[in-house]
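Hi C.,

You asked whether I'd gotten around to modeling the 357-residue construct. I have! Everything is below, sequence then structure, no commentary in between.
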Amino acid sequence: MNATKGGLVIFTANSNPSSRELGKRIAERLGVELGKVQVYQEANRETRVQIQESVRGKDVFIIQTVSKDVNTTIMELLIMVYACRTSCAQNIIGVIPYFPYSKQCKMRKRGSIVSKLLASMMCKAGLTHLITMDLHQKEIQGFFNIPVDNLRASPFLLQYIQEEIPDYRNAVIVAKSPSSAKRAQSFAERLRLGIAVIHGEAQDAESDLVDGRHSPPTVKNVAAIHPSLEIPLLIPKEKPPITVVGDVGGRIAIIVDDIIDDVDSFLAAAETLKERGAYKIFVMATHGILSSDAPRLIEESAIDEVVVTNTIPHEIQKLQCSKIKTVDISMILSEAIRRIHNGESMSYLFRNIGMDD
């Protein structure tokens, strides 16, 4: 990797040692030492950050991976950003591979768009630039009033498929629901493979049915609005029986998605694919949150392998499940840091990426 100019400081904002591994990898690739900082929780659970070197007039990159305690993770980041701002850092760039609360980016009945709130808090604290990876919805970039670079992990996952799955030419890329069909299509077109879509699964949290703007009252109460006004009710959706659009018989099925957290939908998809004749099943995702009993359920399931990147630390989950494999994405993050610090174009990192990717 090309050398960086002076005036670069890299901090990791995690008080959790297992979450600092990605920061160490990035610093090693850039040939610099991690900045000296103390991040810890006091007895009353307040977060305290103490920067132990000068950042005046420097480009500060704060790497924050999301631990199990996501709210503490956010507070650590905000406090460190504000500390750098009050210490006269020239630029404060957040490197947040997995953006927390990204699933809460739509209005849900009487809820709130939490990812917009989080974006506002980061900008208010003093962040001047954000580097992230595979946002759950690309529109989240619009919640920020600072530059956002939404990098892609798909080149690393595609490389894994080509190098680690010997018979990948006999594979089919699977979308476990119609909503993830675009991602599956992107993988299939790059690998010159076929595509299959599972339709008819149980309603999930991302559906329009839980969006307040698409959930009319079940009982038509015209008088409550106006005696002479009749508003037609929207016909409720009804899921058809589970079907697989595409041929998976005698093939390797590769399910692709951006996040794997609650694995129930993946397990159901794997069972369906097995019934349709798929003889091997892989799951590929950028962010492996793998909450709760996910490792145990994967270990006992029909899934042969789950491949995720190290945007989120999951070493404990790997100890519980031998099927979980990790792809390192520190290379692209370190190159993004180098280019931003040296004032170089970022377009090289977005080659061949279309609007739908």
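If it helps when you're writing up: Residues 70-86 form the longest helix (17 residues).

Thanks,
B.
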